Amino acid sequence: MFFTQEQISSLLTGVSATARDRELEETLTNLSPRLAAKRNEYRHFGPYWWWVKPLVKRFPGARKSWLRGCYQDTSFLDSVDAVSPLLPSLEEKEAGRWLAWLGLRYYEAEIVDETPASLHIVERANKTVIAYRIYDADASEQMDLFGENTDSKEELEQFLADPVRFSGSAWLKRADAYIEEGDLLRSSAALRRAVDRAIDEKDRSTAWIRLGQVFQEHHHTRKAIFCFHNAWERDREGWIQGLIAEAYMEDNQTHQALSCYEAALQAMPGNPEYQAGVERCRRLIREQPQGFSLDPDHQDTNQIGQNQAAP
Q1: Domain containing 283 — which CATH number?
Q2: What is the pLDDT of residues 61-106, one digit of tens each?
Q3: Which residues lie closer than 8 Å to 130 by C-beta, 6 or more apart?
């Protein structure tokens, strides 16, 4: 999902099941009327929404609203294993409550903007990373063709009042403050909005690179590799291959790092940093125990899902 195992352990330290349930009760009681009224607000929970939604249903603010629907993104849920990495010994219901509690942490950081982001970066249990656009069919509604579209009107009013807030470059600048504070969640939230609201592919590539650097700094290495690959797909500068190579090295994927360093050298011949990277990779590969293989062109099999670039 989003949090690393180390972050989950840190967040859960000192939090009892009783304290967890009390916070879920208080927070979701207050939020349920807002969620019922603002149909896209659920996106602030990101991928954790699917564990929050079952809990929200029973609160008074959810009565006779779209929240009572039964839609679940089963294709997404089948592709992730959020429960096992969390607390393997817990039964599913109990683990689900902890995941909903983690959703509150995610929600708090996502409130950097009244317009929720649909784009979220998710690492699955098999170590592949995807750009996940959350969609709850229960929140959809047929547009009233003969009346005013209230949501569109509200968004237009927000845009007219503060048009800069809707630009990708503004979100890049806003992310700087969160990065300076070392706030992974809010800087990620700001940079994902920069990706979505960029006016051209050059700006979108910049946002992907910055997001990758934030993830790498906070040891979300697989997500960093995914982001750098997205940047490369949009702006094929050799130095981006260098960023990918460094991230692969941190993730102990030496063969992949070597390929990227070599690609970076093709674009920037003689670069001493990339030459040193190639030599380091080759040395490490030589030092690795050589097991029996029928494939002479062995490559690391533990690879990121880099081809699943976000639109």
Answers
A1: 1.25.40.10
A2: 787 899 999 999 999 998 887 766 666 667 778 889 999 999 999 9
A3: 79, 121, 122, 124, 226, 305, 308
Task: Determine contact, residues 39/141, Cβ cutoff 8 Å.
Answer: yes
Residue 57 to residues 64, 94, 297: CA-CA distances in angstroms?
Answer: 10, 17, 54
> Tokens standing for 171?
């979100």
Band of pLDDT at residue 299, cut at 50, 70 and 90: very low
Q: Decide if 26 contacts 117 (C-beta within 8 A).
A: no
Phi, psi (deg, nearest 5) at residue 163: -65, -30
Q: How far apart are CA 165 and CA 174, in angstroms?
A: 10
In a domain, 294, yes or no: no
Residues 239 and 260: their CA atoms lie apart, in Å, by: 10
CB 244 within 8 Å of CB 235: no
Q: Which domain holds residue 17?
A: 5-137
- Asked if residue 174 and residue 260 are part of one domain, the reply reads yes
Same domain? For 213 and 248 the reply is: yes
Would you list the DSSP string of 46-69? GGGHHHHHHHHTTSGGGTTSGGG-
Same domain, 93 and 185: no
DSSP letter assigned to residue 111: T
